[in-house]
């Protein structure tokens, strides 16, 4: 009897041990699976973060390269402006008989002989006075010096003696007080004269600039084709050269603007600033492991 009881107790003990092992196995296996999954996800996340890290590094690198490119562009633009300025101050040549050649002679001084047709003159403005001692001429906008802004460019048709062609000559700048003809009679020379002028091509209308209204006598920019059609002349324009301090009542000559858009310095500062800022942020976040804010 005792033997039987002992055998039964041993059997129950073995059965309980077997059940415990199976339970442990069942619980251990899922835990192992979850650990592998979490480890795999963490590894993928680290790999993704590493890729983003190097991709974001391209922002400061690229912006630095663009800043270097703007340094080159700025130098090129300054040299171009200096070249055009020197060209406008070079020795004058004779006016070519073929006006098509003037397309390659902008800012080049030319000599011409003829007479002014004062009865057909027009004015462009308001424009600011360009003074020779100024390093950078005013732009002629309404934000310029109010005392110097209220002026106009006096444009007078000029009949060439040799060919009879009529061209346009910008005689210079006059203040508001000289707009009436009777205030500048002494400057309205008659007969044949020889003058030197700087060749200028047509001018595109800038954003927000009013349109020309020939029927009202309102001219705001140099549209040679529109002006030549209105005044029945050739689409040729010369900025007259002369003494910077003419007699009282005369227009002030030498009103040539070497206007070339030059914003490369602002672009340079922008790209280098962006490069420095993003490089600091990248180093702080990815190298030092610090929050950005």
TrEMBL record:
Its main location: membrane. Keywords: Membrane, Mitochondrion, Mitochondrion inner membrane, Transmembrane, Transmembrane helix. It is found in: Membrane; Mitochondrion inner membrane. It is a multi-pass membrane protein. InterPro entries: Surf1/Shy1 (IPR002994), Surf1/Surf4 (IPR045214). It holds the Pfam family SURF1. One of its GO terms (cellular component) is mitochondrial inner membrane. It comes from the Eukaryota. One of its GO terms (biological process) is mitochondrial respiratory chain complex IV assembly. The chain crosses the membrane at residues 265-287. Probably involved in the biogenesis of the COX complex. Belongs to the SURF1 family. This is SURF1-like protein. It comes from Papilio xuthus.
């Amino acid at each position: 009897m005792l033997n039987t009881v002992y055998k039964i107790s041993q059997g129950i003990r073995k059965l309980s041990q077997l059940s415990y092992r199976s339970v442990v196995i069942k619980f251990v296996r899922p835990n192992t699976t979850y650990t592998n999954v979490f480890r795999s996800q963490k590894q993928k996340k680290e790999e993704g973060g590493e890729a983003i890290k190097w991709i974001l590094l391209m922002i400061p690198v690229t912006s630095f390269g663009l800043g270097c490119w703007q340094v080159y562009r700025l130098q090129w633009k300054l040299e171009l402006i200096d070249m055009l300025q020197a060209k406008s101050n070079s020795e004058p040549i004779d006016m070519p008989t073929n006006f098509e050649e003037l397309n390659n002679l902008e800012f080049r001084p030319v000599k011409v002989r003829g007479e002014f047709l004062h009865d057909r003159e027009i004015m462009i403005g308001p424009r600011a006075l360009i003074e020779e001692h100024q390093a950078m001429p005013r732009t002629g906008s309404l934000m310029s010096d109010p005392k110097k802004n209220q002026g106009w460019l006096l444009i007078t048709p000029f009949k060439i003696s040799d060919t009879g062609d009529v061209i346009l000559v910008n005689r210079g700048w006059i203040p508001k007080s000289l707009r009436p003809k009777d205030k500048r009679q002494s400057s309205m020379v008659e007969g044949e004269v020889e003058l030197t002028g700087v060749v200028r091509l047509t001018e595109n209308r800038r954003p927000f600039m009013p349109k020309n209204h020939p029927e009202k006598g309102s001219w705001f920019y140099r549209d040679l084709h529109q002006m030549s059609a209105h005044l029945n002349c050739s689409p040729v324009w010369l900025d007259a050269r002369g003494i910077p301090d003419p007699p009282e009542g005369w227009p002030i000559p030498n009103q040539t603007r070497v206007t070339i858009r030059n914003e490369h310095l602002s672009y340079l500062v922008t790209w280098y600033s962006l490069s420095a800022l993003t490089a600091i942020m990248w180093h702080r976040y990815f190298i030092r492991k610090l929050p950005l804010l």
